[in-house]
Amino acid sequence: MPENRSSAAPAVLRLPEYTKADQEEILGNGDDPFGVASTGLTWLPKEEHFGIRHEDRLVAHTGLLRLPVSIGDTKTEVVGVGGVAVAPGMQGQGLARLVVTAALKHARTRGPQHALLFCRSPLVPLYQRLGWHPLDKDVLVEQPEGRLVTMPLRTMVTSLHDDARWPSGPVRLLSLPM
């Protein structure tokens, strides 16, 4: 029997924190919940968190982190978006759109002109539907011990303000990825 779905959109909440237990509540306790362990990258935790609860269970999450970046000769900041997760039984109901949209609405108040995320190739169409654009050049990211590596995942950006244009030139995240 199909699940009885309410016609009201679920509310996105600002979460005071996002713990490993919260992540497991959404995605279970698998070894590689985001499918990126094979990259061997070290990731930064997000600082701001947005989630959706359904029947007292956390079922969706997005995190934000303000990060330094260089684009060509320009040093600036972006809002990094990461940790986007929707519980497997709740996928296909627009929860990723809701939680990412709410996070970006908040990001628009933070100052940077753009948001940036990294995703696996199969997720590119989802983010394109949400207004993100893939970069067609490699992006360098920092790693421990001063290593600089090419990001193996797709890098996508979106403008946070109507007049913002992504500059041309090589992109380097001046920190660990988010």
Describe the structure.
- By secondary structure, the chain is an alpha+beta fold.
- 15% of the residues lie in helices and 35% in strands.
- It contains three helices and ten strands, in the order E-H-E-E-E-H-E-H-E-E-E-E-E.
- Strands 1, 2, 3, 4, 5, 6, 7, 8, 9 and 10 form a ten-stranded mixed beta sheet that branches.
- A hairpin with a 2-residue loop joins strand 2 and strand 3.
Task: Give short descriptive properties of this protein.
single chain; 178 residues; alpha+beta; ten-stranded mixed beta sheet; 35% strand
| Mean pLDDT over the full residue set | 93
Shape: globular
Helix share of residues? 10-25%
**Strand fraction:** 35-45%
| Count of alpha and pi helical runs | 3
Computed CA radius of gyration, to the nearest angstrom: 16 Å
Q: Based on helices, strands and strand pairing, what is the structural class?
A: alpha+beta
Tally of DSSP β-strands: 10
Biggest β-sheet: count, sense, barrel? 10 strands, mixed
SSE diagram, text form:
Blueprint: E1 12-15, H1 20-27, E2 48-54, E3 57-71, E4 74-86, H2 95-107, E5 114-119, H3 124-129, E6 133-134, E7 139-142, E8 148-150, E9 154-159, E10 171-173
Parallel strand pairs: 4-5, 7-10
Antiparallel strand pairs: 1-2, 2-3, 3-4, 3-10, 5-9, 6-9, 7-8
